[in-house]
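Q: I'm writing up a methods section and want to include an example of the input and output format. Could you take the sequence below and give the corresponding predicted structure tokens, formatted cleanly so I can copy it straight into the document?
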Amino acid sequence: MSLAPKPNEEPHPDFNAAELGAVAHLYRGEVYRSTIWRTRLDNTTNWTIVTMGIALSSTYSSAEASPLPLLLVGLLIAFFLNMEARRYRYFNVWRARARWMETHLYAPILRGEEYNERWRDVLARDYTNPVHHISLARAMGRRFRRNYGWILLIQTVAYYGKLAIHPTPAASFREMVSRAAVGPAPGWVVLAAGVVYIGGWCAFGWWTLTLDRAKHGDRGKNVAMG
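A: Here is the clean output for your methods example:
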């Protein structure tokens, strides 16, 4: 979002002491709200980790235990990721506002520079017409790349380990495939579905990364609202 002044636009008067104090309290409020929603994000991730731990305990409880819990937990991971992405969209609103004030007000004050007065118009419009600054897809992509991709990696390695060692170490790849069978579904179908599932998430993470880079550029550039 451009901060360039418009032609013939009257400059904003500087903040007086009372107004600057009000802005400081506003900044504190935005930091507090972003902290609260950051905690809610951590809670969702914790639920996912606990669920994965239960699935691992159930699957590896004995050599005869079924690997099915490790497959079903993938559905819960997708559900928690969607929930966390929706929470992240709210967190991103408060984080973006706080970051905007840090960049365009506090940083120039600390450097002893004049700040561009247009930053206030951008922030005021965001308060007047509040919207999410990031789409649900991009939010899911960010949370997947930072947290859930690693959780899916653990799930995949654990599932492979179950097929490879229980009830006895597999003598061949064909034996591992046969162990993956679930009810009437043959092992190769289950494994193929798993490859599509994991590959789909990886492709989704890469696609959303390209969307983020297209909007914000390289890290450290184009600090913007959202």
